[in-house]
Design a protein that fits this description.
CATH topology of the largest domain in chain A: Rossmann fold
Radius of gyration of chain A: 18 Å
Function (chains A, B): Provides the (R)-glutamate required for cell wall biosynthesis.
Largest interface: A-B, 27 and 27 residues
Strand order of the largest sheet of chain A: 4-3-1-2-9-10
Number of strands of chain A: 10
Organism (chains A, B): Polycladospora coralii
Structural class of chain A: alpha/beta
Oligomer: homodimer
Order of helices and strands of chain A: HEHEHEHEHEHHEHHEHEHEHEH
InterPro entries (chains A, B): Asp/Glu/hydantoin_racemase, Asp/Glu_race, Asp/Glu_racemase_AS_2, Glu_race
Catalytic activity (chains A, B): L-glutamate = D-glutamate
Protein name (chains A, B): Glutamate racemase
Largest sheet of chain A: 6 strands, parallel
Distance between the termini of chain A: 29 Å
CATH architecture of the largest domain in chain A: 3-Layer(aba) Sandwich
Strand content of chain A: 15-25%
CATH class of the largest domain in chain A: Alpha Beta
Helix content of chain A: 40-55%
Chain lengths: 277, 277
């Protein structure tokens, strides 16, 4: 019983293909301000979207093995592509709670939708996996789901121009195939997309609820930590940010997105591989 | 491993002081349409709001003991007053997940609020317990909470005139003491209040997010069932409704609120007491 208080102060591990998962990290900081985050972004091998399942699965295992060196109390897979490929495996493999970004978004959409007609946008990989559709229909078999891959949105965010003058046009063109009049809820099925919430909301109109998986995943983490008596009791957070890419680049983007100064640590791929059992 | 598939089809127990918790039951039916509900309302001894803690605690234990005769996979305490008094005890005592209505509402409010200033309305008992304030501040110690007891709202709902012409005036008068300009989120801290969402939203204005604990509790139940591999796999639901009061009255109100024909079973207090260990 003496381990319990210590364990509450363990960090929450967050992995992502790069910087996109910072939208989830930011929401965790906002909704759970006492918690400590260890974030690991695989910027060197980003994006995961167009890669094979085998490759994404292998990369994800490497990220997890590295973070699991530290005492963690929960793990968030803050990348839709990695969630689709590895969530079931990691939930079985690890003894701590593991959360992906797909199910929280699906559950929130079910809560929001009155007419049971939901749209999902994501990367080619996520949409092809059908993961959102499966998650939605497992709970509500009669749900009507309109899925759309939007390959131009991640590059728009990564370019740093997500609030530029062109972003509305790119978003409008990407979302054009969605049957807006038939659905009342849209899931942002990619952790990059919350940065485009404004143009997306503008394009979709005010009658369509826009669900950010970042916000919902943080909320679900809060629920899980509470029910497992794992909420941090005191503010001892000392977040750490690791990247396989340039630590300077990562720190610059993270500081910008999180609105506070971030120091990032560079991790080499060989170090990561050494961590694998 | 053969018990698992059976357990997924067990019912979800819901207890309440009377009919108020039907707002939670309705949300569970909407968000988790495959699940079976066993609902028990203590209409004979309703309301719980003005009763002593000891009495509410005793009554709640009796309701739980009766429902636990059936194979349940989770228990919802769909009454704020009962949650404030018995959640900690029941979580320790029972081996199934136990959810109250206070923490889900608090977590949803934390997610919704941008300025960290939140209002809470509830019965005298709930507000006096300070349960929402504790729940909010455990996660966000800097949260500013404005609590207000609204003793006139439950009678308004129970009278059946919740969508009558006078309801706006009663709501406006009840909410008048809230500093609306200083908060961006309002928690409906009583399971009766979702029936007054329309006049409450009208009075509060469109800039204040109104959080229904009914909706959030159902969503949290969905999360917990998923993470414990307890989601129902097939539609075998055969809901049952028990009441300590008149089964005809209960059935009439429940049919009206749930929008479908409901058959209610009457339970005598002596039967309940026999169930206590």
């Amino acid at each position: 019983m003496q381990i319990q208080p210590q364990k509450n102060e363990y960090a929450i591990g967050i992995i992502d293909s790069g910087v996109g998962g910072l939208t989830v990290a930011k929401e965790v900081m906002r909704q759970l301000p006492l918690e400590t985050i260890y974030y690991f972004g695989d910027s060197l091998r980003c994006p995961y979207g167009p890669r094979s399942e085998t490759e994404v699965f292998q990369f994800t295992k490497e990220l997890v093995a590295f973070l699991m060196q530290f005492p963690l109390k929960a793990l968030l897979i803050a990348c839709n592509t990695a969630t689709a490929v590895s969530l079931v495996y990691l939930k079985k493999k690890l003894s701590i709670p593991v959360l992906g970004v797909i199910d929280p978004g699906a559950r929130a959409a079910i809560k929001a939708s009155k007419n049971k007609k939901i749209g999902v946008i994501g990367t080619v990989g996520t949409i092809k996996s059908g993961a959102y559709e499966k998650s939605l229909k497992r709970i509500q078999p009669t749900m009507e789901v309109h899925s759309l891959a939007c390959p131009n949105l991640v590059p728009l965010v990564e370019s740093g121009n997500w609030n530029g003058v062109d972003s509305y046009d790119v978003v409008a063109e990407s979302l054009a195939p969605l049957p807006k009049e038939e659905m009342d809820t849209l899931i942002l099925g990619c952790t990059h997309y919350p940065l485009l919430t404004q143009p997306i909301t503008q394009v979709m109109g005010e009658n369509i609820a826009v669900i950010s998986s970042a916000e919902e995943t943080a909320s679900e983490l809060s629920t899980i930590l509470y029910h497992q008596n794992l909420l941090a009791q005191k503010q001892t957070n000392q977040h750490r940010f690791f990247t396989t890419g340039s630590s300077d680049n990562f720190a610059r983007i993270a500081s910008d997105w999180l609105g506070k100064s971030v120091y990032a640590e560079s991790v080499s791929l060989s170090t990561m591989k050494d961590c694998l059992a």
